[in-house]
Amino acid sequence: MAYTSRLLNAIPGIRHAFLDVHETAAFPYAELAPVKLVHGNEVHHYQQPLPTRPHADAVFTAVAGQKVGVVTADCLPLLIASRDGRYVCSVHAGWQGLVSGIVDNSLACFRQQGVALADLVIAVGPHIHPCCYEVSAGFYQQLLDQPGGDRVARHRQRLFHSRSGPVSDPLKAAARGSDNLWFDLRAFAEAIFAEAGVAPASVEWLGVVPTAPRSRWAPTGAGPIFRRRRAFSIRGSCAKPEAGSR
């Protein structure tokens, strides 16, 4: 099913949606400003088509009628817009992007255009929750070693949770290691929003964790991290109005 944001719906001329895997498959990707997502902190300021896809995890534009979007699995899909509808930005924010500053850099694009944080709205689509985001004990140190790791240290208690004993809730994944922790991606983004000065009322969180049984989740490993990627693909898109439209 598609999710839409009441905050973005209130902006005249902005069309947007967070789509599920089936709707995403039918979406005309050629209409999006193309980028190659690399789990980094680069924001592509789209002004005109380029001969090759830039490596970036966010797309910012003021071009009327231009669609921007991202495809995610576990990561946070963010759609940001100025309240006057002049500027929009789509953001792919996983743990690597968050710790290295993808949200900070995206907000900076609006500030560079003279848009105050109070004049922004942010919609966040469905993403993995701490019930299912298992990481190894060494993951915390891995985050500390990244640029921006000091922010992780300040919010450690909010970002990491422990779990002991058997799991009775069918929507919670069983631990794969006795020392492993559970990581809260949303809490990380909330801490970043708060430090940047974004009011909670300007942020809308959409969607829920999928209800597929644990046996249907496909575990993958990335260094010291154990993750369960869900079969739920989100693509957020946001389009500026055509010139002269209402």
TrEMBL record:
CDD domains assigned to the protein according to its UniProt record, in alphabetical order: YfiH
UniProt keyword list: Metal-binding, Transferase, Zinc
Metal-binding keyword on record: yes
Superkingdom field: Bacteria
Pfam family of the protein (one): Cu-oxidase_4
GO terms assigned for molecular function: copper ion binding; S-methyl-5-thioadenosine phosphorylase activity
The protein's name: Membrane protein
SUPFAM superfamilies xref list: CNF1/YfiH-like putative cysteine hydrolases
Reaction it catalyzes: S-methyl-5'-thioadenosine + phosphate = 5-(methylsulfanyl)-alpha-D-ribose 1-phosphate + adenine; adenosine + H2O + H(+) = inosine + NH4(+); inosine + phosphate = alpha-D-ribose 1-phosphate + hypoxanthine; adenosine + phosphate = alpha-D-ribose 1-phosphate + adenine
Membership in a protein family: Belongs to the purine nucleoside phosphorylase YfiH/LACC1 family.
